[in-house]
Automatic annotation (TrEMBL):
Organism: Kribbella deserti
Pfam families hit by this protein: Cys_Met_Meta_PP
Keywords: Pyridoxal phosphate
Superkingdom of this protein's organism: Bacteria
Protein's UniProt name: Trans-sulfuration enzyme family protein
Family, as annotated: Belongs to the trans-sulfuration enzymes family.
Cofactor: pyridoxal 5'-phosphate
Amino acid sequence: MSDELDPASLIVHAGRPLVEADAPLNEPVVFSSTYVAGGPAGYGRFGNSTWSAFEGVLGELEGGHALVLASGMAACAIVFDLVPVGGKVVAPVHAYNGVTGLLDRQASEGRITLQRVDIADTDAVIAALPGAALLWAESPTNPAMEVADLPAICAAAKAQDVLVAVDNTFATPLLQKPLDLGADIVVHSVTKFLAGHSDVLLGAVVAKDQETYDALALRRKTQGAIAGPMEVWLALRGMRTLALRMDKAQENAQYLVERLKAHPKVSRVRYPGLPDDPGHERAAKQMRGFGAIIAIEVAGGAEEAQRVTESTELWIHATSLGGVESMLERRRRWPTEPDTIPDNLIRLSVGIEHSEDLWQDLQRALG
Ligand SMILES: *Cc1c(COP(=O)(O)O)cnc(C)c1O
């Protein structure tokens, strides 16, 4: 599809069958474990035309070559598999806890060596790079909402031949394009904003160059964490409305942060769209919007925060994020969440409901 199209148009039109008489508008779901011999795919674990449609759209949006996988964690895992045995990984102290947990285990079992850094501390990240095989970044981070200086850390990594992967789940390619900022690989939990309806688990990687793509494709093919065609079809269908959903969710987030900041029960609001947020200046430079995830700290501590999450009616008390429905949870209710995340921190995933309904419900729960 033409490079001149705005991503909002591209996301609607890319990845469709050829426009010709009686052609379907949507790529069909192909349920087949194998194919008649003689073609390029050959077997269901090696390729699927529904995957290709989804990958075409995501690849164009991110500016690379995409691969869909069974979950966000499956996508992360094949990237970590690129690290040679004993190789050094530089990763954030705060990141999605499934990722930090997997890296910790791999380090404790001697599969990798691991150096954790504050990903927002550019000097610390750069100081950790010598000898590294992989720099893993997440920005904004889940759930601390820290913003990494992606152009600076990617440039430093490139100068030392360190591969850079960025988890772009919170921003989506509509708000941030890590490959354009210097990264080699983008990772997504497609489960979240891309699919957008809390009905599928899915992941994706996007590689900037063919060689990295080939290495990742080989891992998907041989390790077998492949996506079901129905899930991919649902994700592609959900992704068609991403631009609209993101616009509305961000508008709601902006509306809510202004009110949350003024609320006496909220001791801190973390959102890079706030002018006094530590990540604001960076986010304004490298993102096209500040996203729809907010973290708040509740005055009165963990118990009070937990009570808030159990007192809403419209906001759903659940883990996960990026759906059309607003969700919230206290992250430290999970024992896997690091204790450097405040125990009174609630992560809010803002959906597309009416902003005033969202605020009234939150205000009631805070009261
Ligand atoms: C949810 C999430 C993941 C893991 O994705 P799954 O689809 O749940 O496997 C990875 N990174 C981030 C930032 C996430 O929010």
